[in-house]
Specification:
This protein is α/β, with parallel strands linked by helices. The protein contains 16 helices and six strands. The structure holds iron/sulfur cluster. Iron/sulfur cluster (SF4) binds near residues 124 and 245.
Length: about 425
Amino acid sequence: MNKQIDYIKAEIKDQYLQDNKPWIIGYSGGKDSTTLLQLVWYALKELPKEKITKDIHVVCNDTLVENPKVIDWINKTLQQIQQQAKIDKLPIIVKKTMPALNDTFWVNLIGRGYPSPNSSFRWCTDRLKIRPTSAYIQEQVRKNGEVIILLGTREYESIARKKSLKKYSVGNSRLSRHSDLQSAYTYKPIRYISTDDIWMYLLETSSPWAGSNNKLVDLYRKASGGDCPLVIDTTTPSCGQSRFGCWVCTVVAKDKSMQSLIDNGEQHLKPLIKIRNWLVENRGNDKYRTGVLRNGGKGKGPYNIQTRKFLLTQLLSAEKSMQEKLISQQELKAIQIIWDRDGYYKNVYKIYYQVYNELIKGNIMNRQDEIKKAQNGRIAQLCKKHNVHDKFIFKLVEKEKYKSLKLGKFSMSSEVEQAIEKEARNEN
Ligand code: SF4
């Protein structure tokens, strides 16, 4: 075991000194990525200080629907890593990535009515995990030309993974080309360690940032399982199969980790399992879906508005009873904008009031009527002054508002062009 660890550390040091490409470590807080980061840390500490020149980005993705118990622990750990790196004078940059507002689980499930993901319509992984991390990696590629991504994956995890490793390997080197991201390479220093050896290493070797790995071991014991790997491409093993996935995950038949945590004393998590089970059990029920597909054809469409309102009520009620933030104010605002388009004006705001018996704090939704009135008045004045049809301008403003939730500029400009053409046709 010690021999194997020494070999890995020697390889890490050698690889670090090969070039100037910054390293990006995919850190999920689980046993594999913790082992990887520890080994890199201890290996670099063995190098002469003047040779530690290139940056190491520790990237951790928060899907915003992580198990609250797990994300609390990860947040604390990320802080410890950053503080200790400073003390140890290592060029480590900790970065937490998150999905864009338009891509979050709740904006799509409750806002747009996407049915909860399953293996044939798994709309979540790309939006919640791949896009946020890829955006950060691409940013580093733009700044540095090329980057190396260190992964805590181990080769025997799946045959499919093995095939993909072969396909993208760069000559005889330890690096492989990233399957999707240009100018990015992957390197898997712990690819040959067995699960038993991983645990042995973590139990025997203290963590450079936290002193011991007892809390990690305890979390695993309570959740009795593995971790969710940092998903950075389509070849990463299904994150839905791992035990520390999103608490809303309906891709797996049963959320074993959540149930185990509850069985091991985390009773306050019960409302989450209730919501998740409702999503699994009622996904295919016609009465919760519209009868129109997104392309206009007949079939099981998105959740109807009653279902979306019901889900929002359940979510906010769980949030209130657990005293734990489950949805952000920004997401509530984004959902309202989507619902506005479907003619359900102010419903988010009403549901929030019903659950909390108070208005949404500091949110623009509270002053929606007032702001809209003032804006419309100003637009009408300007239209009059410039002799422009105000109704047409109002239409354009509405289009811009709906698109502002991050659709591309191209999409926005083409909608505006279409509206102008339609108006011109009407006038002729
Ligand atoms: S853990 Fe489940 S819900 Fe989360 S991204 Fe993966 S498949 Fe989707």
